[in-house]
Design a protein that fits this description.
single chain, alpha+beta, Ribosomal Protein S4 Delta 41, Chain A, domain 1, 5-stranded antiparallel sheet, 9 helices, about 40% helix, globular
């Protein structure tokens, strides 16, 4: 996941939609996109109609910002999706949804994907009983994602769950026991992506 060191709300304003980069703040009136929906920068002048290339690039940048991946990582996912069977765009989005940091966030174990990255890197998460500290790890159908049974890990995740306001996606299920855990019931499909994405524009751009 790429590190964003500047004001992340600028990315939401640039893309024109919520990317949920600041966790629970994005669900409150304090959200920058709710207060000021114009693109960042100086006083806006009348903008010309975006070019065809600009529309394709904006769609790719939106997805990169949403999942927090760098260009090189994104190209790797695209190459893997292109080699696979079926629709390349759907395969690409499925791969991004399968990232462990994304799954941890969508289960509610972390407020944002950036926070989920830290949760994974610091060893708070196990997959099928084995500690995994790689945020880009791709989960598989049937995997059990569980919080490590230690006080610091449980305290961190329970705090995130108490503030979790979104629904768990259909391809995941979350247990309600003392130790938070979730299961990957199936591989994600296009309908499981929580932001509007025109994957065909991304494929056209990356194929050139």
């Amino acid at each position: 996941m790429g590190r964003i060191t500047g004001p992340v709300c600028r990315l939401c304003r640039r893309d024109g939609l919520k990317l949920f980069l600041k966790g629970s703040r994005c669900d409150t009136p304090k959200c920058a996109l709710e207060r000021r929906a114009t693109p960042p920068g100086m006083v806006q002048k009348r903008r010309s109609k975006p070019t065809d290339y600009g529309l394709h690039l904006r769609e790719k940048q939106k997805v990169k910002h949403y999942y927090g991946v760098l260009e090189r990582q994104f190209r790797t996912y695209f190459a893997r999706a292109e080699r696979g069977k079926g629709n390349t765009g759907e395969s690409l989005m499925s791969l991004l949804e399968r990232r462990l940091d994304n799954v941890v966030h969508r289960l509610g174990f972390a407020a944002s994907r950036a926070a989920a990255r830290q949760v994974v890197l610091h060893g708070h998460i196990t997959i099928n009983g084995r500690r995994v500290d790689v945020p880009s790890y791709l989960v598989k159908a049937g995997d059990l994602v569980r919080v490590k049974n230690r006080a610091k890990s449980l305290q961190l995740v329970h705090a995130a769950l108490a503030d979790f306001r979104r629904e768990v996606p259909d391809f995941l299920s979350r247990g309600e026991g003392a130790i938070p855990e979730g299961r990957v019931d199936r591989l994600p499909v296009a309908e499981d992506v929580s932001i509007p994405v025109q994957a065909n524009l991304i494929i056209e751009l990356c194929s050139k």
